Amino acid sequence: MAFCPFATTRLLAPPGTPRPTINPTQIVVHTMGSTPAAADRRFRRADAHGHAIGQSHFGIGRDGTIVQWIDTTARADATYRANRRADTTGAVAVTTEGHAWQPWTDAQTDALVRLHVWLLRTHPTIGRRVCRSAADPGLGHHTLFGAWTARTHSCPGRLRAPQWNETVIPRVLAAFGTRYGDPTPDQLAAAFVTQMTGEGEDAPPEKPPLPALPRADEPAALPAAGPPPAPPAPGGPAVRGPDPEPPHTPSVQVVVHAVRDFFLPDSAPKRDHP
Question: DSSP letters of 171-193?
Answer without folding.
Answer: HHHHTTT--TTPPPHHHHHHHHH
